[in-house]
C-alpha cells in the first residue's frame, strides 16, 4: 500500500502543478498562445527525450521479454476498449466519433510518464513505451479517421510523430548496445525531467480558457467519463489481475494500468482542430473534464489493483 500512497501523492502533486498554470492564466501571466508554445516544447523536446532516455539501459533479455509482454497487454487492452464500443453500437447506444476516440485512447504520455518516473523509477518508463507505441499506431490511423482525417498510416506520419520517432530511436540504441555520451545523456535526461511540470502547467492554462460550467454541464460527457475513467479501468484491473496470477511482475503491470486509466488523449483535441472536426469543442471539453476527474478516479483503481495483487 506504500506504493499506492506514493502514486496518489504524485497525482496530487501534478494537480497542484495544473493549479499553478490555472492561476497564472487567470492572473494574465500566461496566455493560451504561450501555453501552446509550452505544449510544443513538451511534444517535440521533453517527451521524446524521456522516451529515448527510457531505453538507456544495459541490454537485458528479461527487459526485452517484459517489454514484449506489455506490448501484448497493450494490444489486449485496446481490444477490450474496441469491443466495448462495438457492443454499444450493437445495442443502439452509439458513441459519436469524438466520444469513441476519447473512450479508446488515453493520455498515456505526458501525464503518465512523470507519475511512473517519480514513483516506480526511471527503469519502469520503458514499459510505457510499449503502450504508447501501439496506441500511437492506432491514433494515427483509426483515431485520425474518427477526427476527420485520413486513416492511412504513411512514413510521413511516422516521421512527423516525435514520440514514435523517439521510441524507434531508443529501441535502436537499446538493441545496438549504444549508450549516449555523458554530456549528451545528461542533457537528454534533464530535458526529459521537465515533461511533468510543463505538461501540467499547459493543462492548467487550458482549464482557465475553458468554459468549465458548460463543459461540466454536458450530459454526453459524463457517459464518456463513466466509460473512460470507471468501466474500462475496472475491466483493465480484471485483465491485469489475471495476467499477474500467471506472470507475476505486478509493478510492471501497474505501468500498463496507469497508461490505460488516464484521461482522454490530448492528441485528439489537436487532431479535431487540425481537421476542423464538427466536434472540435466537444473533444476539448471531454479532455478537460476527464483530466480533472481522473485525479479522483485513478487512485481507487490503483488501490484496487494493489489489493488484488498482494
From TrEMBL:
Q: Give TM regions.
A: 6-25, 37-57, 63-88, 100-118, 124-141, 162-180, 186-208, 220-241, 253-274, 286-308
Its membrane topology is listed as:
Multi-pass membrane protein
Its GO biological process terms?
transmembrane transport
Tell me which UniProt keywords the record has, alphabetically. Answer: Cell membrane, Membrane, Transmembrane, Transmembrane helix, Transport
Against Pfam families, the record matches this protein to:
Mem_trans (PF03547)
Which GO cellular component does the record give, naming just one?
membrane
* Localisation per UniProt entry: Membrane
UniProt name for this protein: AEC family transporter
Amino acid at each position: 500500500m506504500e506504493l499506492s500512497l506514493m502514486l496518489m501523492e504524485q497525482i496530487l502533486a501534478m494537480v497542484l502543478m495544473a493549479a499553478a498554470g490555472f492561476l497564472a492564466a487567470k492572473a494574465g501571466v500566461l496566455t493560451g498562445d504561450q501555453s501552446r508554445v509550452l505544449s510544443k516544447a513538451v511534444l517535440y523536446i521533453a517527451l521524446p527525450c524521456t522516451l529515448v532516455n527510457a531505453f538507456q539501459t544495459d541490454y537485458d533479455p528479461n527487459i526485452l521479454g517484459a517489454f514484449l509482454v506489455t506490448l501484448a497487454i497493450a494490444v489486449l487492452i485496446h481490444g477490450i476498449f474496441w469491443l466495448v464500443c462495438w457492443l454499444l453500437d450493437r445495442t443502439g447506444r452509439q458513441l459519436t466519433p469524438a466520444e469513441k476516440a476519447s473512450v479508446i485512447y488515453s493520455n498515456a504520455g505526458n501525464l503518465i510518464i512523470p507519475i511512473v518516473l517519480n514513483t516506480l523509477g526511471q527503469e519502469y518508463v520503458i514499459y510505457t513505451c510499449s503502450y504508447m507505441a501501439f496506441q500511437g499506431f492506432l491514433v494515427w490511423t483509426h483515431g485520425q479517421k474518427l477526427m476527420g482525417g485520413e486513416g492511412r498510416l504513411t512514413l510521413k506520419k511516422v516521421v512527423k510523430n516525435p514520440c514514435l520517432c523517439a521510441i524507434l530511436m531508443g529501441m535502436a540504441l537499446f538493441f545496438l548496445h549504444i549508450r549516449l555520451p555523458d554530456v549528451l545523456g545528461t542533457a537528454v535526461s534533464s530535458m526529459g525531467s521537465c515533461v511533468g511540470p510543463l505538461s501540467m502547467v499547459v493543462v492548467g492554462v487550458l482549464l482557465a480558457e475553458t468554459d468549465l460550467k458548460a463543459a461540466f454541464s454536458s450530459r454526453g460527457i459524463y457517459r464518456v467519463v463513466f466509460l473512460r475513467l470507471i468501466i474500462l479501468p475496472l475491466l483493465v484491473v480484471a485483465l491485469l489481475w489475471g495476467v499477474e496470477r500467471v506472470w507475476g511482475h505486478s509493478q510492471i503491470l501497474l505501468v500498463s494500468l496507469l497508461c490505460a486509466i488516464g484521461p482522454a488523449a490530448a492528441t485528439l483535441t489537436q487532431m479535431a482542430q487540425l481537421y476542423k472536426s464538427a466536434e472540435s469543442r466537444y473533444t476539448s471539453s471531454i479532455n478537460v473534464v476527464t483530466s480533472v476527474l481522473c485525479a479522483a478516479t485513478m487512485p481507487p483503481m490503483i488501490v484496487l489493483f494493489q489489493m488484488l495483487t498482494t
